[in-house]
Amino acid sequence: MPYRHLFGPVASRRLGFSLGVDLLPFKTCTFNCVYCECGPTTSLTLNRREYIRAEDVIPELEDLLAHPPYMDRITFSGSGEPTLSTAIGKVLEYLDVQHPQYPAAVLTNGSLLWQQRVREEISRADLVLPTLTTVNAETFRRIHRPHPALSLEKILEGLVLFRREFGGEIWLEVFLVPPLNTSREELEGLQSAIARISPDRVQLNTLDRPCAEAWVHPASMDEMAEAKSILDFEPIDILTRATRPHRAERASCAGDTIRETLLRRPCTIEDLVRITGLHEGEVAKLLDGLCDEGVVEARSVGDGVFYCLRERRTEKPR
Ligand code: SF4
Predict the structure, then answer these.
(1) Is residue 314 part of a domain?
(2) pLDDT, tens digit, for every residue of 254-311?
């Protein structure tokens, strides 16, 4: 079955092997961040609705999870702000009831957490990762170019309320966009907001790849280290290029993903491209290596070529 609303699992240091669930048409968001790696927001909205129906997503999950690839968690992210979707509560409920063994994570910009309904709908997640860049209204406007009806004050209030009510973990991402939010004054403001929000973990992040605006550049290691010391929070991680999976590392993780997946079912190259997130050529090269090692073999069935493990292990897949 081709999956229209699922992607990966892809390897990430932040979330391990993560299966992505995308509940929005590209690119629907409450913000139009200068650093957005998906490019400019085409639908800037606060309108919550079932853009993609839960009834269309759940059968895809059902199908994929009947023979699951190796993964650490299922993450709601993708083409915009996932809490704009009113399907998110239903899909989280389905996962919680039917597949509780997979922790569910929500990557959110946090802009709608002041709405009680949104807090309730994502309460079945295990991990929520909101973003906060500033407590200064002008800096907020310059970095996020938000929907005009959004107020930073309300967003901060929503984060505090959510922390009080949510039983799972909150990992707060602080995204640095120098020089907009890297001054001492900016970071001290963030420090007191973080103390109020009291997340389980803070992750300092910065630009890693081409984004919406060419003038945006990543924070240096010195800027990240200084921010870490001013934020003065435990635990706090610095996410740099060195700690993110670069392509070669992703490819080596992908070798494990391919083995784990073939342990469960034979796959075509197209299946494995979808599962690993790599290009077809990279998957073909990995498969060639595994065939040369004698681990994997190709079998033609009908019009398709399927790759299978030569000796399928007898233990139960994880
Ligand atoms: S909130 Fe996320 S998806 Fe929306 S514009 Fe900002 S970076 Fe992009």
Answers:
(1) no
(2) 777 787 677 666 788 887 876 776 777 778 888 988 898 888 888 877 677 888 888 6
Residue 315 covered by a domain? no
Q: Which of 198, 218, 243 is the last residue of a domain?
A: 243
Find the angle CA(102)-CA(258)-CA(272) to the nearest 5 degrees.
Answer: 90
203 and 161 both lie in a single domain: yes
- Indicate whether residue 30 lines ligand 1 (CB < 6 A): no
CA of 175 to the centre of ligand 1 (A): 11
* Contact status, residue 56 vs residue 235, Cβ threshold 8 Å: no
Q: Is the dihedral of CA 258, 262, 267, 268 positive or negative?
A: positive
In the structure encoding, which two tokens stand for residue 3, read together? 């999956």
- Print the domain residue range for 293: 247-309
Does residue 33 have its Cβ closer than 6 Å to ligand 1?
yes
Q: 95 and 104 in contact (C-beta within 8 Å)? A: yes
pTM as predicted: 0.80
Going from the C-alpha of 90 to that of each of 55, 79, 81, 229, the distances in angstroms are 9, 19, 17, 40
Ligand 1 pocket, residue 41 CB under 6 Å: yes
